[in-house]
Design a protein that fits this description.
This protein is mainly beta. It has two helices and 14 strands; from the N terminus they run ββββαββββββββββα. The chain has one domain (52-196): Glucose Permease (Domain IIA).
Length: 198
């Protein structure tokens, strides 16, 4: 089933506003498209690491959040170098793809996913960003589940040794950003967040 949505409108605490056209290709268990054409983003049932799920088996965090003003984490395969080139990258949690494209500035192929989760009865949103991908296997508007493959590890067209750059933002829709900054407002440590929301 393919449904074209011109705009998603905030109708309830379980819905979210995504200010661009979306093509919803599949709605997995826990999500649906309402009669009015709005997509209900599934509530995340937990979060896992984006490589070697669920616990990053076979990978290490080569540059953590905050190190050298890094706004994300760089995940590398234990083999080092380009040994992880082409390895699958997985969605950290259920959500909706908000961006899937090749971006300039050494970002390479980038996927962004909006997630909704609950803590003590309160709903929250975060957006995960996966950069330097070799390829992308999802499209804007796709509803993804935790652990679903969204692309593979790349090197941003030769700009870097192969690795996954992962960011987590507490406000969906922030600008692409610089990747490095002493100003961390709006950014979360991915490993801390994932560990606290298993």
């Amino acid at each position: 089933m393919r449904i074209w949505i011109a705009r998603l409108i905030l109708l309830s605490p379980w819905m979210t506003l995504i200010p661009f056209a979306l093509s919803v290709r599949e709605a997995p268990a826990g999500s649906s498209v309402t009669a009015g054409g709005q997509l209900e983003i599934p509530l995340a049932d937990g979060f896992d690491f984006p490589v070697g799920p669920p616990d990053a088996t076979g990978y290490y965090n080569a540059q953590g959040f905050g190190r050298n003003h890094h706004l994300g984490e760089d995940w590398n395969g234990n083999g080092g170098g380009n040994s992880d080139m082409g390895d699958p990258v997985f969605a950290i949690g259920a959500g909706v793809v908000s961006l899937a494209e090749d971006l300039p500035g050494n970002w390479g192929n980038v996927v962004r996913i909006i997630h909704r989760y609950e803590v003590d009865g309160d709903l929250h949103e975060v957006e995960s960003l996966y950069a330097h991908l070799l390829d992308i296997t999802v499209e804007v508007g796709d509803v993804v589940r935790r652990g679903q493959s969204i692309g593979s590890i790349g090197d941003a067209d030769g700009a870097f040794v192969a690795h996954l750059h992962l960011e987590l933002r507490d406000t969906p829709g922030m600008s692409i950003g610089p990747g490095y900054s002493s100003e961390t407002h709006g950014y979360l440590s991915p490993s801390v967040f994932i560990s606290e929301h298993r």
